[in-house]
Amino acid sequence: MLNFSFVNPTHIHFGEQQISTLAVNIPLDAKVLVVYGGGSIKSNGIYEQVASALEKHVWGEFAGVEPNPSYQTCMKAVELVKAHNYDFILAVGGGSVIDGCKFIAAAACFEGEPWEILSKGAPVESALPIGVVLTLPATGSESNSFSVVSNLQSNDKLPFATPLVQPKFAILDPNVMTTLPTRQLANGVVDAFVHTMEQYLTYPVDAKVQDRFAEGLLMTLMEEGPKVFAKDAPYAVKANIMWSATMALNGLIGAGVPQDWSTHMIGHELTAVYGLDHAQTLAIVLPRMMMEQKEAKREKLLQYAQRVLNLDMSDEDAAIKQAIEKTEAFFHSVQMPTRLRDYGLGEEVADKIVAQLERHGMVALGEHQAVTLEKSRSILLQCV
Amino acid sequence: MLNFSFVNPTHIHFGEQQISTLAVNIPLDAKVLVVYGGGSIKSNGIYEQVASALEKHVWGEFAGVEPNPSYQTCMKAVELVKAHNYDFILAVGGGSVIDGCKFIAAAACFEGEPWEILSKGAPVESALPIGVVLTLPATGSESNSFSVVSNLQSNDKLPFATPLVQPKFAILDPNVMTTLPTRQLANGVVDAFVHTMEQYLTYPVDAKVQDRFAEGLLMTLMEEGPKVFAKDAPYAVKANIMWSATMALNGLIGAGVPQDWSTHMIGHELTAVYGLDHAQTLAIVLPRMMMEQKEAKREKLLQYAQRVLNLDMSDEDAAIKQAIEKTEAFFHSVQMPTRLRDYGLGEEVADKIVAQLERHGMVALGEHQAVTLEKSRSILLQCV
What we know:
Structural class of chain A: alpha/beta
Helix content of chain A: 40-55%
Largest sheet of chain A: 6 strands, parallel
Radius of gyration of chain A: 20 Å
Number of domains of chain A: 2
Largest interface: A-B, 43 and 43 residues
Shape of chain A: globular
Oligomer: homodimer
Strand order of the largest sheet of chain A: 1-8-5-4-2-3
Low-confidence stretches of chain A: none
């Protein structure tokens, strides 16, 4: 096991009717900006629950944070915060809204040009407190300190992270998933699955707890994922997916183990250039990354094949091949395409994305920095 | 899955050489009381590492917190805190020292008779901040808000809990286990195992993540526990046990699931009356509790038999019987006796302990409150 430091200070309130606890989870003297996305919360009842819980608070709202939140949109919210002296940000949404709120919270307190937080890693020294009402389980952003924001003008999709923007609390009511469209449910399941894989499928460091926890999340997502699309999907299915998605990226399973993230880095570029959903890119890249890295990841691939997929291990090479196929089949089982051609894209993607990776310094990805630009190109060509 | 709220704000610093981070983990302007137990830290090098890390701090020390920390000893430390205005408590020890420090931290700020925190549940409104250098993985006390303190005069062993006494940080260096005696290592493994079981072996509520995490801890402890006694036990074995013990009682695996704790309640009384180590009592009671409750716990016993122990499930009753036998055999494999007679005790124990349970209001224990005093008596008689 590698040395690590770990803490997760986000207070999780999980279950039915938990949105009402906003009334006590946000200080009564706070001036709250409620930030959300395209407005689905107005038709599915979540907006009303939030408004009802905040009836004793002073609050305003900012709508329109888009999937892959843009710097441009976030800066409009920052203007609003400054104009009205909001001092608490309540994100009501999925990962995009939450990531946007993290940037808004930091940018509102930043002296200088906030774009430099993303472009130059300018240090964040303070941020407004953030709370979350999660409407889409997927990214884990509700209880971590990471954010990814896109610049619409420059086609950049860039991350920043600081404990200052980690949400104070996150409310997770699985019932919010009831009205989610198939595409968003699929995105959530796949995103959580690949987050787990990027922290699990590297090389063994004798970290038995972390491995077993990651395997538990993978098994849960594989068991429950395909069931969540039914109109009458049980509460337990939604609850298990929602809790898995949070646990997949709250720092715990990645503490003390090597991490990969090469699939994410390539995926981010695909989203920035072609506008694919984040999880759509992951489902395309991961199976090819597994195949390309199958020798470097051999031991963990075998462990995955045996413990998670319960495969026949008598022929190890066959088991690895089957494990990769079953991973791709799992993505299909949750209604997720896994090829560039499913989005009308072809071999032209490879050069374009490799150029992006190069521009962003992503010249050697993965736990061994073994995914060179040439390997990324090869992976992308296999993704067609 | 049941509704839950969960947060764990203790910052974990895990790994080799982490004790040196005390230098930055405790504010430089704090006046630190270092609290420890019988003095083994002076012979195994931990005291020196702590002193070296604190060389720029103002600090004093209090030695002699005993296993099952006593109210009487803790109150001596409280006097010292008050006399010298210490404002930070550093626990250097295992669960007993940490539990003692939690009481010291609360009692030092308590107006009135601190015994009432334990005896009457008097509310704790403030406490001194606590840090931990863990020297014995076992209780999980390093990152939770629970404490159990004994009154030597009245044979009471009573719990209290408040987020105010949850450690700010905990330093977990697996190398501290190198010089631990067999008895303490065995205690630690068994304690962590039974903590996990008390949150796992109840009835199913479709909480797949929690179940898989608990199973991961049980498997890790069963795999690594027997290996830890060798003089040259690998670092990874110690690390896996240490991290398992922390995760076993930091609130995570118990969030959203029913909990039992009946084995602990009976065990506490055995310790209070006969002075057995905490884990010794758990290893005696748990197998008999599993047998007594085998119908109420049937579904989870089968899940345990299948997933954790990988037993042949063709005959369910046989699998349950074997699962209980294998649990007891695991205790033996980590050098832990499992019978009252191993400590020179016999049937006389039953009446005495039942009287204690009755006196403390423990008349209906377990997830279904089904363990009546009569059942506790029956369990105790089977423990002989």
